[in-house]
Design brief:
Layout lengths: L1 E6 L2 E4 L4 E9 L6 E7 L6 E6 L5 E3 L7 E5 L5 E6 L8 E8 L15 E2 L3 E6 L1
Parallel strand pairs: 2-11
Antiparallel strand pairs: 1-3, 3-8, 4-5, 4-9, 5-6, 7-8, 9-10, 9-11
């Protein structure tokens, strides 16, 4: 199975930047789709960004132009570079993966088979 471990969360002021990492290990299918979700207290889990094995990317409207998702050439580290952070970006951020193709996946969390433990991001005014 696929194992995911997030790191890099913390507290920053509005306008600042953070880089989140997700260590990937275990069996990695050729068609693996990987992504980032976030969840604030009292809200539903929200899709942030995803990347396919061919490095095609998709972003949520609220982060487009500010966040960048990437996967290294060994497919062992998934990264989310977050710039121009806003207080509304405050949430627990989760790394996720699925053995299905990115184009066949929805943003519904239940469609994704593998999850990390989460890392907290807090953006202050």
């Amino acid at each position: 199975q696929v194992h995911l471990v997030e790191s890099g969360g913390g507290s920053v002021q509005a306008g600042g930047s953070l880089r989140l990492s997700c260590a990937v290990s275990g069996y990695i299918p050729n068609n693996l789709c990987m992504g980032w979700f976030r969840q604030a207290p009292g809200k539903e889990r929200e899709g942030v960004a995803r990347i396919s094995s061919s490095r095609r990317t998709t972003y949520g409207d609220s982060v487009l132009g500010r966040f960048t998702i990437s996967l290294d050439n060994t497919e062992t580290t998934l990264t989310l570079q977050m710039n121009s952070l806003k207080p509304e970006d405050t949430a627990m951020y989760y790394c996720a993966a699925s053995y299905r193709l990115c184009v066949d996946l929805s943003w519904v969390p239940g469609d994704w088979e593998y999850w990390g433990q989460g890392t907290q991001v807090t953006v202050s005014s």
